[in-house]
Amino acid sequence: MKKAFWFVTGIAAGLVAAKQLQENPKTKAIVDDVMVRVRELSDVVVEGFREREAEIAAEKKSSDSSSATASI
Prior knowledge:
Layout: H1 2-23, H2 25-70
Helix pairs in contact: 1-2
């Protein structure tokens, strides 16, 4: 029963938000600005993740090659 309540509440909130966006151009501008900032943030997070992934791969590669030469 709780899940149904929250589901219906979410639908109602979505409808209210959609109505606000249609009726108020200022609200739409604010939402558009927020979405641009969220995309910029996600781009920065993804870039940092990929950089760190490359660092870890390089460390692993150098570790593997140094252990291979040590065993010879």
